[in-house]
Amino acid sequence: MGSIFGQNFKISVFGESHGPAIGVVIDGLPSGFTVDFDNISEEMIRRKPGSMPYSTKRNEPDNVEILSGIYGNKTTGTPLCAIITNKDQKSGDYDELKNLVRPGHADYSGYVRYKGFNDVRGSGHFSGRLTAPIVFAGALAAQILKSKGIIIGSHIDSIYNVKDLGFDKANITKDRLLELRKMDIPVNDKSCREKYLGIIDDAKKNLDSAGGIVETAIIGIQAGLGSPIFDNVEAKLSSILFSIPAVKGVEFGEGFGIASMLGSQANDSYYFENGKILTKTNNNGGINGGITNGMPIVFRVAVKPTSSIAKEQDTINIKEGINAKVKVKGRHDACIVPRVVPVIEASAAIAVFDLFIGQYGIESFMEESRDNG
Amino acid sequence: MGSIFGQNFKISVFGESHGPAIGVVIDGLPSGFTVDFDNISEEMIRRKPGSMPYSTKRNEPDNVEILSGIYGNKTTGTPLCAIITNKDQKSGDYDELKNLVRPGHADYSGYVRYKGFNDVRGSGHFSGRLTAPIVFAGALAAQILKSKGIIIGSHIDSIYNVKDLGFDKANITKDRLLELRKMDIPVNDKSCREKYLGIIDDAKKNLDSAGGIVETAIIGIQAGLGSPIFDNVEAKLSSILFSIPAVKGVEFGEGFGIASMLGSQANDSYYFENGKILTKTNNNGGINGGITNGMPIVFRVAVKPTSSIAKEQDTINIKEGINAKVKVKGRHDACIVPRVVPVIEASAAIAVFDLFIGQYGIESFMEESRDNG
Amino acid sequence: MGSIFGQNFKISVFGESHGPAIGVVIDGLPSGFTVDFDNISEEMIRRKPGSMPYSTKRNEPDNVEILSGIYGNKTTGTPLCAIITNKDQKSGDYDELKNLVRPGHADYSGYVRYKGFNDVRGSGHFSGRLTAPIVFAGALAAQILKSKGIIIGSHIDSIYNVKDLGFDKANITKDRLLELRKMDIPVNDKSCREKYLGIIDDAKKNLDSAGGIVETAIIGIQAGLGSPIFDNVEAKLSSILFSIPAVKGVEFGEGFGIASMLGSQANDSYYFENGKILTKTNNNGGINGGITNGMPIVFRVAVKPTSSIAKEQDTINIKEGINAKVKVKGRHDACIVPRVVPVIEASAAIAVFDLFIGQYGIESFMEESRDNG
Amino acid sequence: MGSIFGQNFKISVFGESHGPAIGVVIDGLPSGFTVDFDNISEEMIRRKPGSMPYSTKRNEPDNVEILSGIYGNKTTGTPLCAIITNKDQKSGDYDELKNLVRPGHADYSGYVRYKGFNDVRGSGHFSGRLTAPIVFAGALAAQILKSKGIIIGSHIDSIYNVKDLGFDKANITKDRLLELRKMDIPVNDKSCREKYLGIIDDAKKNLDSAGGIVETAIIGIQAGLGSPIFDNVEAKLSSILFSIPAVKGVEFGEGFGIASMLGSQANDSYYFENGKILTKTNNNGGINGGITNGMPIVFRVAVKPTSSIAKEQDTINIKEGINAKVKVKGRHDACIVPRVVPVIEASAAIAVFDLFIGQYGIESFMEESRDNG
Prior knowledge:
The structure is a homotetramer. Chain A is α+β, with helices and mostly antiparallel strands. Chain A has a single domain, classed as Chorismate synthase, AroC fold (4-Layer Sandwich). Helices cover 29% and strands 23% of the residues of chain A. Chain A contains 10 helices and 18 strands. Chain A has helices spanning 37-47, 92-95, 107-113, 131-146, 174-182, 192-205, 233-241, 263-266, 337-360, 362-372, and strands spanning 4-5, 10-15, 21-27, 64-68, 70-71, 74-75, 80-85, 151-159, 162-163, 212-219, 247-252, 270-273, 276-279, 287-288, 291-292, 297-303, 313-317, 322-326. In chain A, helix 1 crosses helix 9 (337-360), helix 4 (131-146) packs across helix 9 (337-360) and helix 9 packs across helix 10. Chain A is globular and about 70 Å long. Chains in contact: A-B, A-C, A-D, B-C, B-D, C-D. Chains B and D meet through helix 9 and helix 10 of B and helix 9 and helix 10 of D. Strand 11 (247-252) of chain C pairs antiparallel with strand 11 of chain D.
């Protein structure tokens, strides 16, 4: 009824932006996996406000505290609970907005859903801050997947009206993805970095914000993962991707572009190369009939511009029942796209790992885990 | 592990294209609802091959047989099983293709998933024919939703390179949607119908196929439906929409377009009108924070061109382990987009009804049902 | 919301006793498993009315029709739908009882649950007849488990006031279980058969009915199956066992008897024998902390006497709102315990197989399946 | 995959006995419900070691810290996380037992399940301590149910060979249940208290332990709750009850006793009294066909004697692969039955509330909640 995702690998996310703590319970981990906490920290830093050149100055330390599920740096196999204590929050920043419904936010829809009883400070449970525990869980899932040779990486395909070079979908290398993971603004065409920063800077100066598109690839997944009709790879991925705040579109392979192709262009022709089955193009994004075909899984995610802008907007005062104006103050990123990248990758890792466990069993990862210790 | 969808309103779809029968078990219906079977038949005819001007001539009668769950034209409240017996199938058409992996299809991914044991005749469980039971279940869900004032309708937003007028997302009327449901090629700009048919005709002549985009609206849903983080309306809808064969993209409101907007353009400003809370624009597609805001839910679905084309394509012979050529014979639509429209609408009805039951309870629909008898 | 069981191996049961057909959709089967349909028929005959010496004469052929999921006698891996068409039903037998609520039945509770719209003929979806598809699904699961060396068997521990010899819980052999499966009235002490039949005969003559207890053993399951806290073996088994009509109690190992033991008696001491870890006693029924310990899983199920009796009983006329008398006519078994045995075994197979798939993965059974063809 | 229970009202339990903290995330609460934390504390004290006359002296403060989901003493409707920090644990007590498998415990089965990586200190995630968060969640569910007139109460039906007076199942009053809740050793026949304490004292002196049976009643549930076939009330309750450590049997109404009744004795006759539909007896424990019939729900739970006993027992040394002897030291209750009572009641509240939400909707409780503020 809300904040639990997964069928076999389950995460249960909790917390409100200005409450005592946020966190996640992860159920369905293999036992005996040695966790690389430094790697998890790096992922969480990628998501953190303040880690980008342009980013908001809020002091969110995101120091994770593990309450259970880890013993001697290894997973116990029983539920892992990780929490992040909330600190240094200025509730006052939000108080004046209490009755002014912020456009683009869940203020109004959440008010109706929870009859006005939800904690609205800092957007409460709707806050982008809740993606921190998702990044934690996803970074852990990604480590386990990596032990099976599966790598996830992304580039920022566009911000506002500037576009990066897209992936060559049929030929994405591990090195390329690992390189992208190291960039603060991951791009294929390096000249885009400055352009993107320029757009974000302009938006900020204009008390406005900018959106963008992230393109993500997953390589190393063998053919045969996923099940028709409903437990297919696209359904699972889209389901968790649309749970990321600000996401308004998800497409696989050529996505919406495939709709203006002919069949002879869209179909990916198979061929043998050194005994391996490959496709010449990858317009289907590595998925046919909802099942992986061994080619890179490629998808794109549309991220809307930050809803919180300092520019004056029309809105309503819901308490007084009148039309009103609002300027959303506080420290908000003029563009959250770079910070969404690790959230998308973490979410993808969670969905893919859940599918893996359902099909290959938790035990198949535990054989692995015994060796890695 | 595959073909069951839903948390409270559950559908379990079964069958292979050339097996004895396909069908669906629907669990979680309110009791006492008087079913309009004529309406269900109309929906199924919309999906049927042969019902479109250009459509394939396969004789699929889609005569539904109800095995359980209906007594005296009313739902009993216990599981409803509906089956469609397969008739007049020419297996021979497919036999020669057995080892030639058809590009764009699930032949290869399915072969690996099921170790070669799945029924491949007519694409088996991957067949588009399996959308017939989904339309049945969705038409029934839509009837129940309609009794609460909720209407679903669509237009074909584009086929290949021709584009219809999009919805005026903040101002979609019931009359408009009902009118669209009556068109064989539902379009806002009536001149598009002939253009679309022309494109399809051309594709067919060239032994090729064409894709397109469907834009769907749901009106009449009050604010407050859906739950963060994961049981949100976008996640649920996208999950079932990506389960429709050939769908490669899903977007809400302005979708991918919103990524190139500024925040001040993307945010939908609230205002009061006659005591009702509305938004001036509807770029968010009626959903904020994953919860409905009372505005029309609007989403677009990208449908790839039919994978089965008569034109020669490169591929592999999986048995012999060599590269090969294939021409996919048989009776295939050069464009399935019009036939996908009722499948999208049915899928949306199923997802929305499932969310309704979880939030308002099955009993809330049973009060209703007692009155409608 | 009712008739679907399982997390990874899912069965969806449908149908009403006097409707067109009953059946089951089985989702989550491994592909390529060669089904022994004769064995399934035998199991279904064990459950069938008329197959016991004393049993009712209703003509229920239980001829199963497979609609999907089987191709060339092997599982395809996609959903298997099996239906049983209802024939030779005399609705008239039940019509007069329509408003007379039968004590012990779900007539009243079902009336409230479904607001009077459920199909009450022959108890509708509540009918014991609905256990036929469960036996079908369970017999199939049991075959797959048997290919891994897992055997399930039972004896009738008591009927009314006569008691059989209980299992020697720490020493149950495969031969013993297979022998029991061949008996019409499975008992450890063969002299019980006549006594049981005598009790049933007496009950019948007195227009009454008798209950009993079934004790079941599962051998061949390795240690380590099941997960604390909630996905434990006892929870899963009890959950499906309590879904069998007439079951009012479930206990594992010494069950309720363990409550009057001291800890030093109840604890099962471990010892090594030829490198194998065993316990001297098996008071815990092969399960510690919800996880199998490698010893036989042993549980007992209490079955109440058939609710339908010809003897006059006090009740109400729900339509007229007055107290009344009722004699339940029709062809009813004076004791259903022997017919419940295969239902219990089938249910246990379903629950155990579901746990197996979650832990070891569907693929682990598919390796197997490729060999068995 | 383990520690999550529920379909609509979900609890996710985490933690190990000697880890940093244990806790629970509760998802699916109505918003706006004013929580009575004093009442929750009382329930947790009932479960706490040291709260019974005979009880172990371990200092477990069970001070609950709320991390999310509560704002101004009311539920927000978003996930509530409550944690209990572990303090004053003497790991040393357990260290020597590391390789000596304790009979009756999950040491061996857990070792295999988790390949030896689970945290075994104080039984880790298998510890009875993990019932504390279940009591927290259940006490909250019980409060909400109480606002609808539903009351849960229990008496200790037996300890070892001494038996209390059973409930008069068809006539259980609210006052009786509330009175029982106030007793440290809840009994119907007050003379049992001393006898029970005597047995426990004897067991302790003999370095042994004693089991018992708890009988629980739920009153105030209207007819019509639950769904055949699998989502029935008995299946849901048994599923969570068998998740409580030490539970080896669950029965409803007359339970195993009904197996030695005739149908004419077992059937509960209906009658009208002041327009209300009642049954003369309640052998079916308020449930017919898996659905409530409006009579009290009555069930009994068998609790085995504490597995940890100081008496010497035969066992194995799993590391050395030899037979061995073990005495389980540490502070253990000679009888946990009284402390299990609040756990059973809490578990029942969780299962029942989950069924309520599925059937009546979370919104039906929110109307209520707005009034109670």
